[in-house]
Amino acid sequence: MKIRANGIDLEVEDSGTAFDAQGRPRPVVLLIMGLGMQLIAWPPALVQALLDAGYRVVRFDNRDAGLSQHLDALGKPGVLWAGLKYRLGWRIRPPYSLLDMAQDALGVLDALGIDRAHVVGASMGGMVAQRLALLVPARVLSLASVMSSSSARGLPGPSPEVTRVLMSRPAGKGLDAAIDHSVRVFKAIASPGFPMSDAEWRALVGTAARRSLHPDGILRQMVAVLADRSRADELARLINIPTLVVHGKADPLVPFACAEDTARRIPGAHLAGIDGMGHDLPPGVVERLLALLIPHLVAANPTTPAFQHEPS
């Protein structure tokens, strides 16, 4: 469904009822996806497990992605120039900021009448989740930052092999070429301990590409990530928000050191590394993530414990 939030149109998927059979409000989990990714990138098994544990699950397409509003009027940014400015420590003026994207997420909660939520963000979505917690800490029951970063200067970046793939372009024009290129990118950052077949990758990428293909939006999101420099020092303010930091120990895009830095900066944060996990969410990783995430959610909201999902 489309909702109006923070002045733009966002595509939202609200799964699960607001109340259980006894009339108790279900605790809400807000899922925020990463760079250029859509709400359908959250694995169905993860969403279903949260529903079965008694949670109401809210997902949305970030601005400039999926079926949410595309902000092409803001122009196509120069990512290489922004990257050079980042390395030199110069100021970057993005078309919009991660704070704007956090305000989008807040607008989703407001539009759905949700007072407080557990917030889970993956990759760039983890950065937006951190921004949301800094913006309105009273609205965040708990924070889970998955394969993400504080964006502190000096942290390691992608491996040279991954950088080469990321900087490459599709071999041709059209949907098939875009899918081929996306498969190469995702395989380059995938979990070595939990491999997926080419057919599985093509099915996932193809479904997303047919739903929405908007490369200029990815560029604008990327510049927003590069421009968000102050967040690392601000994370120390997240004193009373239970925080889980989950990261793959084999992540070639956002190395594990980034997770260690994030957990160090957030008071009381719990760091959990997953062996063999890269920068994706294949089935084996989802199982291990859920084993960490659901106890984290229950512990963070003991007055509204998770309960068994009633059969429909």
Task: Report what the structure shows.
Residues 305-312 have low confidence and may be disordered. An 8-stranded mixed sheet has the order 1-2-4-3-5-6-7-8, with helices on both faces. Helix 2 (79-88) runs parallel beside helix 8 (215-227), helix 3 crosses helix 4 and helix 6 crosses helix 7 (198-211). It is of the alpha/beta class and 312 residues long. It has a single domain (2-156, 215-300), classed as Alpha/Beta hydrolase fold, catalytic domain (Rossmann fold, 3-Layer(aba) Sandwich). Helix content is 40%, strand content 15%. Helix 4 links the parallel strand 5 and strand 6 (140-146). The protein contains 11 helices and 8 strands.
Describe the structure using short key phrases:
about 15% strand, about 300 residues, globular, 8 strands, alpha/beta, single chain, eight-stranded mixed β-sheet, Rossmann fold
Strand and helix map with partners:
Blueprint: E1 2-5, E2 8-15, E3 28-32, H1 44-52, E4 56-60, H2 79-88, H3 98-111, E5 117-122, H4 124-135, E6 140-146, H5 160-167, H6 175-188, H7 198-211, H8 215-227, H9 231-234, E7 243-248, H10 256-265, E8 270-274, H11 283-300
Helix pairs in contact: 1-11, 2-8, 3-4, 6-7
Quick structural overview:
The protein has one domain: Alpha/Beta hydrolase fold, catalytic domain (Rossmann fold, 3-Layer(aba) Sandwich).
